[in-house]
Amino acid sequence: MKKYLIATAMSLLVLNTVRACEICGCGLGNYYIGMLPQFSHKFFGIRYQVRNFHTIIADDPTQFSRDYYKTIELWAGWNIGKKWQVLALLPYNYIHQVSDDGVTNNQGIGDIAVMANYKIFDKTTITRNDNSFAQQLWVGAGIKLPTGKFNVDATDPALVAVANTQTGTASTDFMLNTMYNIRINKVGINSSASYKINTTNKDKYSFGNKFSANSFVYYAIKKGNIGITPNLGINYETTAVNTLQKITVLQTGGHLLATTAGAELSFKKFTVGANMQLPISQNFANGQTEMKMKGMMHVTFSL
User: Fold this and answer.
1) Among 49, 75, 240, 278, which is least packed, fewest CB within 10 Å?
2) Domain regions of the chain by residue span
3) 298 Cβ partners below 8 Å, 6+ apart?
């Protein structure tokens, strides 16, 4: 497949563009928060995430790639006073690709992210029917640091394929986010949206900006010291095209609409949670790349 990639890329370089089989870059530099654990002051824990993408070149089905992005992530949060919240994530990435060329593996520390959120309001009222009605609204911003490795040759004809196997992006990126939670007794809806602004790295390569939004319906069940919170939701993501020297990289970017189902199990200060995302609608690289599934598990200790 490398011969195909190099031949294709060399011809497209004449037009100042690059194409490769691992074409969407769907697994690199992405961050997923999901439902935060309930905590009074601070929490810390570990998460495991997996993302699976398959690619088949439309005009030559013998050219294929199956890409598996796995992340073990340390995460922590602190409530500062009554209005501020700080979150930090330290990922370790493992990338496994199986293609007609063979098997490629890469692993290492990813890009650290730090976010600060400000609580706009937090209101709880009791209705005439003794129902508890609670609302929270948070807004925030964050930064992603280039702590992961991005070791590529900008003149490599297979640059796009190589770039997607790196553990970092080598760029300092910025995030904007908001979260709204509404709950009536045991039933709630948690909705959030984020926008990630990617900058150009030292190799003049830039991954596309990304917008994501999700909404979960959850039901809180409490039995003594044990809490169970099943949740069901929907997630939407759209990613802009990548660029090299400010020139669009072909077959990058795309969008995804997925359904999400999961549950949180808490016992005193410990929380164990998991969820899975399955696609409803998607379009990456004109349908040549498909997301098969995303999954996440975590164990968290709250203080």
Assistant:
1) 278
2) 2-302
3) 45, 46, 47, 48, 75, 271, 272, 273, 274
Digit-by-digit pLDDT tens for the chain (303 residues) are 443 333 333 333 333 333 333 444 454 555 666 666 666 789 999 999 999 999 898 888 888 889 999 999 999 999 999 899 999 999 999 999 888 888 889 999 999 999 999 999 999 988 778 888 999 999 999 999 999 998 877 677 666 667 778 899 999 999 999 999 999 999 999 999 999 999 999 888 899 999 999 999 999 999 988 999 999 999 999 999 999 888 888 878 899 999 999 999 999 889 999 999 999 999 988 888 899 999 999 999 988
Q: What are phi and psi of 149, to 5 degrees?
A: -85, 140
- Cα 120 from chain centroid (whole Å): 25
pTM comes to 0.85
For residue 301, give both structure tokens.
Answer: 């200790």
**Residues, the chain, total?**
303
DSSP 214-277: EEEEEE-EEETTEEEEEEEEEEEEEEPPPEETTEEPTT--EEEEEEEEEEEEEETTEEEEEEEE
- Give CATH for domain 2-302: 2.40.128.130
